[in-house]
Design a protein that fits this description.
The structure is a homopentamer of 251-residue chains. With 251 residues, chain A is mostly helical. The first copy, chain A, has a domain of 165 residues. The first copy, chain A, contains 10 helices and no strands. In chain A, helix 2 runs antiparallel to helix 8 and helix 8 packs antiparallel against helix 9. The first copy, chain A, starts with a helix and ends in a 5-residue tail after the last helix. The mean pLDDT of chain A is 90. Chains in contact: A-B, A-E, B-C, C-D, D-E. At the B-C interface, helix 2, helix 3, helix 4, helix 7 and helix 8 of B face helix 1, helix 9 and helix 10 of C.
């Protein structure tokens, strides 16, 4: 479980609830089912229209990624593991690691080292893995932009809902006492849109982008490491090159 | 028929209609012909002014693309087909596939493999197909930006319409009872602009961009596959290279 | 005359006029000379301050470009012409075309083929023409951004004008009957700013950008064609390469 | 003196003054010292916080650049001068121009040709001058973004000032007669922010960017010219290459 | 201590305080604890949700960077130091500088010259240091975007808070006398959001970006200098190359 994703989400909604409670009018005036329908339903409909079916199916998996702990190792662990494999190969040959590679859970790592075990030449290995990384980036980019679009759509649907409410209110001014509550209801969709955009879509979009960035760095380390092993570079050189990514030279 | 495009569009407009019905004042106050004219007509006029005639003629075809099912094969099917052709050529020579290529419906695939049949050298084939892809990208980009511009223009025309309505109302405050309905009418153009931008242009723009991205990946697979066949690479290598794009190594 | 530019402009303004007429208060409340001065005059002043004198002088020529029919040939015509010249040169030598080149009206084409006639080597010709194209792009970019800036400035001057009007109105609330008309006048500058930005600057900006894109493609065809002629490539190859840009492989 | 910078600035402020005079309430309601303090002072404070001391010191020099006539020659003059130097060197050797170069006022030109006089090889000269140009671009970019940030900050401080004023007014509604003037004063900071952003920061930002672009082109001409002289290319070739940048092939 | 960061922050908040004092209603109406909770707390929660735990831990260090004087030398000092080391190495060999390098405080400089002392070849040294610089840029970019996101989130939470307040007020219009103060309180969250975005996040974001840019230039000088020493270039050439970055050729 990614504690910061969950904590941020729960904390954000909790603080809004707290502000409502402190406001003293209770939750009642803040709940309006038609307003929820137009904002949440409308955002779902627009998003469904904007994206391809194959990408819409990745909505729930993407949410899980945002809320699960990163599955890739920390960079120092990764460098250590690559150095370990490089040493094993130098000592006992590439066949020695075959069994271990089969048990790896990081799929990019597994694929890279299976190619190594298969004896793929470095000039084939590196562009192949870079193609994989590039296409992973495209797939991730679609999901990140999906949550970005949801944020924008939620705001637009909120504004549309408020306009629908305002027109209804203005067309029907006969009872002045009803103006306040009608106006309050009209504003609710704008509020729902802002909440959906800020406290849901905006958090997921940014978190997915952050995880993607970290994953790209990990994949780059794997690409560089496996290419250097394939090119039979010295263990010392491999270590030095990979540590260059690691060391935090300056804050 | 692209179900998500249609579903999103119908769902979005349906939910707005539902919200209006639930509002209890009926559709009457939401319909104003002059407001439709200034927003829809104005957006058409500005778009016509912004783009070249040859691109404006592509408006309806672009709409069809957004609402039709993608005509390109799924990536795994495409890779399988390319591998099949590569194997046929290895076995029986390039002439063997000539008839089959003629029957292909994917025009980019057809063109690439016709060039192969014609014996085009790999160093000519690859840049030629990349030029084609680049110019396809430019043509698609114009249409994507056309729908993006429509969204922006609809919003601007909505605001202009509201200002026109507000000035008329303010210049004529003699009858206080008319203020509410006049204000309601003034807000309608803003609402129409937001609806046109969010529930039409925004959906089409994003859907076209998504389909373009998928098509680019398919074309890249075709370019790489046909270039490797032209360069007489081994079937095994072709398979491995194309599968690199395919495998979803990580979510 | 570019019919879409003119049609869009006339249509857009006409629809706004129609909306005003349908509003029933006549044109009177929509006309306020000081508001025109602050929005139009202010936008001119800011634009003059933002750009260099040498670029400001290109304002009227740029407007003419936006409203004139493109002077470059259609791509198929261009490819045909280049193939014709290539064939002539193959048959009768480069001197044969000298007279015809002198009569060309497309200046980029003329310059490229005059360099060919002068016997410029392909390794000099191509970078030279690309430098020309790049600098043409910079000059066009300045004018496109000028109209983009005008749109932004018109909106900002409209807001400033409205604030000037609101302050005057609020400072002088003694006569309640004057509030409505004063408010109406204050809103006029915002309306003028939006009209100037949407129905003038926005149209010209986009149209210039579209024409620029088309011109770049034409220049790229000319560069590729003339370079291939200079490199003495076969007519068949020249045709195939240039047609790659032409064929609309997919919508 | 750059007439368009000055004219734009004076014209813009003059038109706003004119609009105020035509409004009929005089300058009085538009002047409020605390509002000036929060907008102008706040923008200065935020800008000081955003940038490094060494860049803040370049504020006044940057303003001077925006209001002074460009010191670089026009492109045709520059090309002529480079051709003249190239001819002199061909005829009398590089030492002949040493004295003349010392008297040049364009510092980039002077530096490039002093390196030529010092016998710098073309493969050293070109990357060296490009490094200089790149770092000049970074320094200019900081100042351009400084004025861009000032525009954004002025708008934000204007909004903050208006909120401060509104809260004061709303917290103190006992005297209804004071509401109008209090509201007017509250709006003044928004107006000041928009004026500072549009009629000062926006003009300077754009003018600096325009001058930077022109200077980059001039430097590129100098780099290309001096590199070709160092590479001992023919006068004819130098002329042709430099004129490629010059000729306005199309509008 | 970075005087401009601190001065800007203190000055900005001081001027807002001054504007409140000059407003004459005292600080009372500007302080509302629930509003602080929803804006500040909400921004913290959203930021926590948007970023990874490992990056959130860098919040305080990043703040320190923004408020501390740059630790890197000025460029002229840096060039002088590199030239000094280059001369020492030429005279006494690379071992001579080992002790001095150990005492360096600039970590990037230290690492580059330790690699030199270790006899790293130039073709290994340069890409290694560039990898380090690139990853430093990624780490810095995350923190710069974190403060950028905080600015956007603060504004959004301010708007949400104002909507919460407005709904409470409108749902409860029975006491007209309470409308003014309730409205004032509702506006406070928007004001807090704008203050947090402009006078905190905006300043830190820009200052970090400025410091990052200066640091990148310093690192580039170190990379170029150490690579040239490794390549055993002449002292004269090293000086000339490094000074190219230094000289301010034009304002």
């Amino acid at each position: 479980m990614d504690k910061t994703s969950l904590g941020g989400l729960v904390g954000g909604w909790g603080l809004v609830a707290l502000a409502i409670i402190l406001g003293g009018v209770g939750f009642g005036p803040y709940i309006d089912v038609p307003s929820v329908i137009i904002v949440v339903g409308g955002s779902i409909a627009v998003t469904a229209g904007q994206f391809e079916g194959s990408d819409l199916k990745r909505f729930t998996p993407a949410l899980k990624v945002a809320f699960n702990e990163v599955k890739v190792e920390s960079l120092p662990e990764l460098v250590e593991k690559i150095t370990f494999y490089a040493t094993e190969i130098k000592k006992h040959g590439v066949m020695q690691i075959e069994q271990k590679v089969m048990e790896e859970t990081n799929p990019f790592f597994k694929e890279a080292f299976q190619l190594l075990v298969d004896g793929t030449k470095p000039e084939v290995l590196e562009p192949l893995l870079e193609t994989k990384l590039e296409h992973m980036g495209k797939r991730h980019g679609v999901m990140i932009s999906m949550f970005g679009n949801i944020g924008g759509t939620a705001g637009a649907m909120g504004m549309i809902g408020t306009l629908v409410g305002l027109v209804a209110m203005l067309a029907n001014l006969s009872d002045p006492a009803a103006v306040g509550p009608a106006m309050a209801v009209a504003l609710l969709t704008t509020m729902y849109g802002a909440l959906l955009g800020t406290l849901f879509a905006g958090i997921i979009e940014s978190k997915l982008a952050q995880k993607h960035e970290k994953e790209v760095v990990a994949c780059e380390v794997i690409i560089r490491g496996s290419s250097m092993i394939a090119a039979e570079e010295s263990i010392g050189n491999i270590k030095m090159q990979l540590n260059a990514i690691l060391t935090e030279v300056m804050e």
